[in-house]
Amino acid sequence: MAAQAGEPETGATNHGDFKLSITQALGDQLATALGRLRPAPLTQQNLSTLDNRPGVYQLYRNGEFVYVGKADKSLPARILKHLRKVSGRQGIDLAEMTFTCLYVAEDFSALAPEKLLIKHYKGQGQIPWNNNGFGNNDPGKRRDETVVTANHFDAFFRIDLERTVPGLAAGPIALSKLLAKVSKEAPYTFRYEKKKMGDAYKKIVELPGDELTIAQLFAITAAALPNNWQIAVLPGRAILYPDNRHNYPSVWRYYRGDEILDVEPEIGAAEDIPEEPDTESDEG
């Protein structure tokens, strides 16, 4: 017999569980607040208008939402490092990039707001760069042997060797100063071993002009070093070590003495890429 209006259904229990997800509510509210903002071009001028406060931010490429992260101390400082990274890649233009950001209280950082947003957006199939290693830092020498996977940011967008290095003048310069300048100005990691160079580190090289690309400076550097040295250009960084008989699996170009050797890099199968904590630490 059907229950009358106002009567409990047969077999209904008189108790149950109620679960309130505070973190999910926070993530949803953060996403809503960020969604109200209008993306601005990713430029140093726009970043200079931001306060040096902690917060969360979103990156867009050609209007597509591609990345969400946080800054524990300074939003402009953290986003500037992404600007620098994108500016040094092939196949991508800074003019394609925009961003939004939201200041959050310092004590709110303990709740890992970027993880709340990642969880929120991944369920909607967004933020592809949070899954491809975009926010990861230089993995260090021990990872130079790693095979870059097909779905890695570095595989999609190799470093650009045609970027010019400002502040150089035509004429003589010590190799030590040249290497330090390239390492500082390149918008990606250029890691080199200086202790083993010996007197070659102090060698004077001649620059043919003041608008030289990183590729040209690598060629000048390699030609000035002993024959056992090489510059190896990996998808996401360049390294200089005395190991010219060594081949790195993901390298796509070598500079060895006067020789420039382009090779086909080994690309691994697509796989899940662990995302490092999105902090103020730089790529090196």
Protein architecture, described:
Helix content is 24%, strand content 19%. With 284 residues, it is of the alpha+beta class. The chain has two domains: 22-131, GIY-YIG endonuclease (3-Layer(aba) Sandwich), CATH 3.40.1440; 141-262, Phage tail protein beta-alpha-beta fold (3-Layer(bab) Sandwich), CATH 3.55.50. A five-stranded mixed sheet has the order 6-9-8-10-11. The chain has a four-stranded antiparallel sheet with strand order 1-4-2-3. Strands 5-7 form a two-stranded antiparallel ribbon. The longest helix is centred in the first third of the chain and has 14 residues, at 22-35.
How would you summarize the topology of this molecule?
Layout: H1 22-35, E1 40-41, H2 44-47, E2 55-61, E3 64-71, H3 75-87, E4 97-103, H4 113-122, H5 153-156, E5 171-174, H6 175-185, E6 189-192, E7 204-207, H7 214-224, E8 230-233, E9 237-241, E10 253-256, E11 259-262
Parallel strand pairs: 6-9
Antiparallel strand pairs: 1-4, 2-3, 2-4, 5-7, 8-9, 8-10, 10-11
Number of domains: 2
**Which strand order does the major sheet show?**
6-9-8-10-11
Structural shape: elongated
- What is the straight-line distance between the termini? 75 Å
* Number of E-type strands: 11
- How much beta, percentage-wise? 15-25%
| CATH architecture assignment of the largest domain | 3-Layer(bab) Sandwich
Give the tags:
Phage tail protein beta-alpha-beta fold, five-stranded mixed beta sheet, 284 residues, four-stranded antiparallel beta sheet, 11 strands, 2 domains, alpha+beta, GIY-YIG endonuclease
